[in-house]
Specification:
Helices cover 22% and strands 36% of the residues. It contains 5 helices and 14 strands. Helix 2 packs across helix 3 (75-87). The chain starts with 5 loop residues before the first strand and ends with a strand. The relative contact order is 0.20.
């Protein structure tokens, strides 16, 4: 798989690049023809910092962010994003005038939860949801429902890559969009032309990486 990878540079910052692998892959909500490897952007200090700078510029008109909820292992970007927002004058209502960076858990049923020690960082807080990627928006929608269940006030959604422009009438701000990728397509499981053509699935993929089949 890795030998087929190509690089796609971000329109807003040429220091950022996606590693894209063509093939036939399954996400939790769909089948896709391109796997997007976000590992280096999430784990390298320099790339995570550059990603945060781009994301922060998309919230220049926001007034309050108390908590950043990070999905898909995006905590490093989340920490840099908190710094960029604070430096840009985005205020926090937290007692210590600083932004919380937390990640949810998923129980045995796949439901997103926050433990009691983290719930105070969500309840009554202005929350920014940060994800690695979004194909159909299904995971983002469930995450929003969970944050609202715990009393969070949604301020925005940021993602490194997103194939959807909004979820539940909330704009998804992303560094890369599907138009930036060559021939990117997402299909429902029952209407996948790759399956119809008997092209076998190569891997199960999500925001954390891939598992070959």
């Amino acid at each position: 798989m890795e030998s087929r990878a190509i690089k796609i540079y971000a329109p807003m910052n040429k220091k950022l690049a996606l590693k894209v692998i063509p093939g036939h892959f399954a996400t939790s909500n769909s089948h896709i023809n391109l796997y997007i490897d976000l590992t280096t952007m999430k784990t390298r200090q320099s790339e995570a910092a550059e990603a945060a700078k781009v994301m922060a510029r998309q919230y220049v008109n926001s007034t309050v962010v108390d908590t950043i909820v990070c999905l898909d292992g995006c905590e490093v970007i989340g920490a840099f994003l908190a710094h960029e927002l604070s430096s840009a004058g985005i205020c926090s209502m937290n007692a210590h005038q600083t932004i919380y960076i937390i990640a949810p858990e998923f129980n045995t049923n796949g439901q997103m939860i926050f433990r009691e020690n983290n719930q105070p960082a969500v309840y009554g807080k202005h929350v920014l949801l940060l994800a690695a990627s979004a194909t159909t928006g299904g995971t983002l929608r469930r995450s929003l429902e969970c944050i609202q269940y715990y009393g969070g006030l949604i301020q925005g959604i940021s993602s490194i890559f997103s194939a959807v422009d909004e979820v539940d009438n909330i704009t998804v701000h992303s560094i890369f969009k599907s138009k930036d990728l060559p021939d990117y397509n997402s299909y429902t499981v029952g209407a996948c032309p790759l399956c119809d053509a008997n092209n076998r699935l190569e891997a199960i993929v999500n925001g954390y990486g891939y598992m070959k089949l």
